[in-house]
Specification:
about 300 residues, 3 domains, four-stranded antiparallel β-sheet
Length: about 300
């Protein structure tokens, strides 16, 4: 059900309601406004009342969706790049795990940043194979009190997945070993909002966390936390549950020739409080950690998006 209330210049309320089947076809329309066509997922409904088209399909930009058949009514514009996948399917037949706003491109990476498959396009979505690092490996240099956890797949699964993707096979059970991450634009905006330059030391900018939320192709609600001291044994502070935050690169000398550093992977608290997929940017080691409340599920080098 999609319900709208429209008020005209005389403050008279106009009522509009569209009912949908499960496939998002319009079942009933009750409206006094003929030009209200932005409906399912914010996409334009090219309706029978539109004398120019009369298609009753949703305009997704690169192609159109037919809600009666629950299929695209034309081929994926990048179909020649994916011979193993039907040109009419959505998200390689896996809409539970992935989204595809315009049917155009995908970029797939291994955890180390090696690019497996790319289709050049202005607004790309990125995918990375899940981490193979165990908790002990990922948190080897971390504060035991603040140590989080990893949620890895086996190295065998990762290699098998990488092989199939590099061959152009993006449809099958092996795609359950892949995590979708944000677009190049959003990832770049995230990194630009973090003022830590990665050089370490004891400057304030390199000893505080930066945080924010993602938009479609950028970030908002960018904030910076108070500067801290890694030798205190405490974590830097980020308030709330933002989509992403950084862990500082700063360090301070301690006894002898030793230095105290900030933990780079997500802390125990980061993982415990995550209400969905979250990103932690290790400003010191250049790694982006993608995690939820079950642990770190993927990592990827930050240089790919700078």
């Amino acid at each position: 059900m999609d319900t709208r209330y429209i008020i005209d210049e005389y403050w008279s309320c106009k009522y509009n309601s569209l009912r949908y089947y499960i496939s998002d076809a319009v079942h009933g329309v009750f409206s006094l406004v003929d030009d209200l066509r932005k409906t399912y997922e914010g996409n334009m409904l090219v309706s029978v009342r539109d004398g120019m088209h009369g298609l009753n399909t949703y305009d997704y930009g690169a192609r159109q969706y037919n809600p009666i058949t629950a299929r695209w009514d034309r081929v994926d514009p990048m179909a020649e790049k994916y011979y193993s996948v039907s040109p009419y399917v959505y998200c390689a037949g896996n809409p539970i795990s992935y989204v595809d706003p315009d049917g155009r491109d995908s970029v797939y990476y291994q955890e180390c940043g090696n690019e497996l498959l790319r289709i050049p396009c202005k607004n790309s979505y990125n995918f990375v194979i899940k981490t193979t690092q165990t908790t002990e490996e990922m948190y080897a240099d971390s504060n035991p009190v603040q140590k989080g956890k990893s949620n890895p797949i086996t190295k065998e699964k990762a290699l098998n997945t990488a092989q199939k993707i590099s061959e152009g096979n993006i449809n099958g059970e092996h795609m359950g070993n892949v995590v979708q991450i944000h677009s190049d634009e959003a990832m770049s905006s995230m990194l630009q909002s973090i003022k830590d330059d990665g050089s370490g030391g004891f400057s304030k900018k390199n000893n505080r966390e930066y945080s924010g939320d993602f938009t479609t192709n950028g970030v908002r609600n960018v904030k910076e936390g108070p500067a801290g001291n890694p030798a205190s044994g405490m974590v830097a502070v980020t308030r709330g549950d933002p989509d992403y935050h950084s862990h500082p690169s700063g360090s301070v000398p301690v006894r002898g020739n030793s230095h105290a550093f900030w933990q780079q992977p997500p802390s125990k608290q980061d993982i415990k409080t995550a209400r969905g997929t979250r990103y932690v940017v290790g400003a010191g080691n250049g790694i982006i950690y993608i995690h939820d409340n079950k642990g770190v599920k993927a990592t990827i080098p930050s240089y790919l998006f700078k």
